[in-house]
Amino acid sequence: MAEDTMPAATSRKAPTGTPESAVLFTLQLTELGMSIADLARTMQRHGDDRPRENIETTLRRVAKGEARFSGELKALLGMMLRSQRRRMAKAAEKAA
């Protein structure tokens, strides 16, 4: 292939978030009663080896819709929400 017919190099941009995913992330965090700093600490306790400041920056970007709401983060929040809901249901069951 001649040089002048070579395809132009494409720049790969990191995937960006959406306003909808930002709202979902914020709602889930609110339901858990956690702040971004709380979630960053939880992520470190569960094996995230990045510096806390970097984790918090990423979480703030997700909350603003500037970064993708990753599947791993969705799974972690989902597990935390299910666990909290189970605990609340058991407490309500005992109280009744």
Describe the structure.
It is built from four helices and no strands. It is an all-alpha fold. The chain starts with 18 loop residues before the first helix and ends with a helix. The model has no long low-confidence stretch (mean pLDDT 90). The protein has one domain (17-95). It has helices spanning 19-32, 36-45, 52-64, 71-95. The radius of gyration is 19 Å and the shape is elongated. It is 65% helix and 0% strand.
How are the SSEs ordered, and which strands pair?
Layout: H1 19-32, H2 36-45, H3 52-64, H4 71-95
Helix pairs in contact: 1-4, 2-3
Q: What would you say about this model in short?
A:
Helix content is 65%, strand content 0%. The protein is mainly alpha-helical and 96 residues long.
How far apart lie the N and C ends? Answer: 77 Å
Number of domains: 1
Shape: elongated
Percent of residues in β-strands: under 5%
Give the overall average pLDDT. 90
Number of helices: 4
- Uncertain segments are none
Major sheet: none
Look at the helices and sheets and give the structural class: mainly alpha
Task: Write a concise keyword list for the protein shown above.
mainly alpha; 96 residues
